[in-house]
Amino acid sequence: MSRLIRTELYKFIKQRKNQLILEGLALFFIGVIVYYSYQEMNYDRATQKSMQMEYDNASGIQQSLSMYKASLEKANTEQKERMLKSHPRINEEFDFWDQEKITSFQLVYYYKNHKVKGEKYRKEIEIKKYENLLIGAKSKFISKENLKAKGEAPAELQRQITLDKYLIKHNIKIGNNPYHLTGINFLYLMLKGYIPMILLGLVTLLCIDIFIGEMEEGSYKLYLTQPFARGKIFISKIISAGITSVGVVTVLLFISFCITSIMNGVGDIHYPETIAENKMLYSLVTISNSIGNVKIVSIGTYLVMGYSLFFVLLIATVMMTMFISVITDSTSVTIGVITGLILLSFVFSSFLDEKTSLHGYYFLGYINIYNILNAQINAPLLLGILLNGIIVILLFLISCYTYQRKDLLGGVS
Amino acid sequence: MGVLIWNELKRRIRQVKTWVLILVLILISILVIKNYKANEYKVYYTMGDAFQSLAGYQVDDIEKLNNKNTYKIVKYSYDLLDKAGKQADQAIQNNDMKEYNRATTFGYLLLAKEGAERDGRLREISFRNKTKGMWEQVSNGVDYDKVSFEPVSFYHNRGMYFEFLLDAQFYYNLYQKGLQDSNEYQMDSMTFCYHYYNKIIPMFIAFLVLILMFDSINQEHSNGSIKLLLTQPLSRMKYLITKIIVGILHTLFVTILGSIPIVIAYGIGDHFKNFNYPVVYLKNSFSSLSSIHNYVEYDLIKRGENIIIGYNYLSFYPKGVNGGISNQLTVMPLYQFLGLSLLLLSVCILFFVSLNVLISSLLKNKIVAFLSSALITIVGMVLSNPLITSDSYNYSPFSMTNPIRILGGTYNVAALPAILIYLGASFILITINILYFRKKNL
According to the UniProt entry, where is the signal peptide (chain B) (predicted)? Predict the structure, then answer.
């Protein structure tokens, strides 16, 4: 068995295709480091610009509301009634935009000259701004789409408020740039956005032809003349696919962690980070009413949970790829179906409401690791790990059964 | 060659992935519709309210007028605006949409006249000539010369004049065709098509072509069937061109078929009545190389809203400056607009097909070919995406994938340069492919 695994691993490393993909993966990691370094460099300028836009917007709306208020005072009863239809809570709406204007203005000046007032001041202003935005969203003075477009969805605002309050209360040193690439922060950023999705896609391509390659070339006949049971061959292939996919990602993560640590230091593993409450985290069913509720843990705990989920997902996706390739015997179909499944998770995250249970019951829906860990979509961590675990076992058994009973004499159809 | 195209197309259409992709597109469409329905908002006010409010703002200024004759004319004019508002409100109550569209058109014409008068005599003459027919039909016999806002018209700027004129044209179209006003979240058979080519297809078109075409040549190269095929009296160049034509037709088949079931399902209910719904269109899209600034994307980021199909009520504030862009926009029937969108989409597909066929011809290994195409597409899109909202023009083929927004003039690129760039880029890719493939050792 160990000889078989060694052979598979040797074949894997020697394949030109795999060498190219490994080079692509290494380039992807370098690209991520370069991208975040660029984001770090531009963070102050970009944030100042976006705060300026928010100030202009709030200022414009507040001005038009003040004109509206003035004409409301002069209007007769019939006119008043009509005017109040479009802005039924005009005074509250005015106060909301006024507060938004003031806090955005304070942040513009903070980013212009942030050494003067310090990070604690920024966090205090941010808390005020975010709390006000939450009130605005609840009262429908500002739309959810608007907040989402600015990267300030209500659940994300709630998360920021909880984290900022904790940092101020415990007098913890506040970092001035979320993209500062320390070793720990690099690992944290790798779990954000679409990066896990791209990584998963690239690693899956590494293992896609572990069965089909031989079938398409016809060399499987020679391989099966060796004195090994088909079951053992299957298991050795699965183990080598698992080792290579998990191994490659782990090695690349470790190397990148070392590089960023040498560049900017390791970072503090005990630094606070938000995570979903236990009720959401360890649930076996989807819970829509716990969305946005977070608690504070160390970033180390966050990373352990995040990477546990990521590696379970990686193994499940690799297993799914093996399964499709065993039943279809076609590289094209396998690539098409796996890409389709990964795209579907993108579709769900883009178009589905965060409360929909479908997020929790689609195995690749868990690829939005940041959103899962921060309770921003209705998909509990434990359910995700369990669901993917079951998929791995089931697909393993079905694939093993299919492979052992496959008619290999007829060649490729 | 025709036979080869037909046989290849039949073979590709029979593939499982074709039907899986069609199903995925239908599923995405259903999710988008569901999402739109969730976002449907209650309309608190009608244009009638707006006209009455705008007429009400001027009461104090009218009272200050000393000249009795001027006072009479201006008072009469604002009373007309107030009356148009009341008529629009009444029409809504009576559910008479034709009358609502008439009153709203007239209200906008009055506001546009106010803007034109403020802008000077020449603008006013131009307005009179442009809107003569419209005025006669919607004013219920009001004499154009008896209406004047000049002594008190100071609210509206040049940009707003064009805005009101465009609004008037929009509602006049609805009035003439007996259609009902729509909003961004409305869904019916024809507006679904608009949303489909605006929100869904641009996001996935590159990946759709990638999945369909990454193995177009290397598959036949790997399994040896290319040798058999090239023993036929068919040049290698014709073989490549066949692949590209089939790629375009196959992608169009998947794209169009992905929308058909939903269009038919809606159409049974609404009889496709909105087929000639007026849609905002950039006037010189096919004759000019320059476009207008992408105010829709800008406003979406800044304000998060865009209330009418392809059209923004705040468009007279492009980038927050009172520049005025609505003079470059006009309205066009939806079916015509969708036809032009399909034309633009076809050249976009041509580019992505040429790219994938080239990579498929260069790399024998399907997985490496897929990875290379995917990386080029993703990197291209990531690098080009900022062009959609930047101050410069959006001239990258990777970011001109939204035909609806290009025709609407809100994608930092007009239709003519988009077509030229796609054709040029495709020509280069196809030429490289032909030169390479001619000498390839098969």
Answer: none
In this structure, are residues B408 and B315 in contact, taking their beta carbons and an 8 Å threshold?
A: no
| Model confidence pLDDT, tens digit, residues B139-150 | 988 999 888 887
B371, A20 contact by CB (below 8 A): yes
Chain Cα centroid distance, residue B95: 29
**DSSP letter at A135?**
H
* B60: nearest CA partner in chain A: A74
Residue boundaries of the structural domains of chain B = 2-39+187-439, 48-177
| A216 contacts in chain B (CB < 8 Å) | 222-223
Give chain B's radius of gyration (CA, Å): 27
Give the C-alpha separation, A210 to A8, whole Å.
Answer: 9
pLDDT tens per residue, range B224-251? 888 887 787 778 888 899 999 999 999 9
Residue B273 DSSP symbol: G
Question: What's the residue count for chain B?
Answer: 442
Q: Show the tokens assigned to B110.
A: 């009055």
Q: Could you give the angle at the alpha carbon of A69 between the alpha carbons of A64 and A74, nearest 5°?
A: 125
> Are A343 and B207 in contact (CB < 8 Å)?
yes
Between chains, do A57 and B302 touch, taking CB under 8 Å as contact? Answer: yes
Partnered with residue B308 across adjacent β-strands are: B311
Contact B135, B99 (CB under 8 A): no
Angle among Cα A176, A181, A187 to the nearest 5 degrees reads 120
CB contact under 8 A, B375 and A24: yes
**Which chain B residue's Cα is nearest to A208?**
B367
Residue A77 CA to residue A54 CA, distance in Å, equals 35
Q: How far apart are the first and last CA of chain B?
A: 21
Å between A250 CA and nearest CA of chain B: 21
- A320 to chain B nearest CA, in Å? 17
Q: What is the DSSP letter of A175?
A: P
- What is the structure's pLDDT at A24? 87
The answer to whether A204 and A64 have CB atoms below 8 angstroms apart is no
| Contact predicate A305/A240, CB 8 Å | no
Cα distance between residue B339 and residue B126, in whole Å: 32
* Residue in A142, A148, A205 nearest the CB of B367: A205
Which chain A residue is nearest to residue B43, measuring alpha carbons? Answer: A86
CB B344 within 8 Å of CB B314 = no
Counting Cα atoms < 13 Å in the Cβ hemisphere of B163 gives 20
Structure tokens at A359: 């997020």
Contact A58, A100 (CB under 8 A): yes
Yes or no, beta carbons of A20 and B38 under 8 Å apart: no
Residue pair B331/B280 in contact (Cβ under 8 Å)? The answer is yes
Question: What is this model's ipTM?
Answer: 0.74
User: Is residue B316 scored above 50 in pLDDT?
Assistant: no
Distance CA B162, CA B165 (A): 5
Contact state of A85 with B49 under an 8 Å Cβ cutoff: yes
Q: Region B172-194: what's the mean pLDDT?
A: 82
A142–B304: do the CB atoms touch at under 8 Å?
A: yes
User: What are the backbone angles phi and psi of residue B63, rounded to the nearest 5°?
Assistant: -65, -25
Chain A residues touching residue B302 (CB < 8 angstroms): 53, 56-57
CB contact at 8 A, B418 and B345:
no
Tokens, residue B91: 């029409």
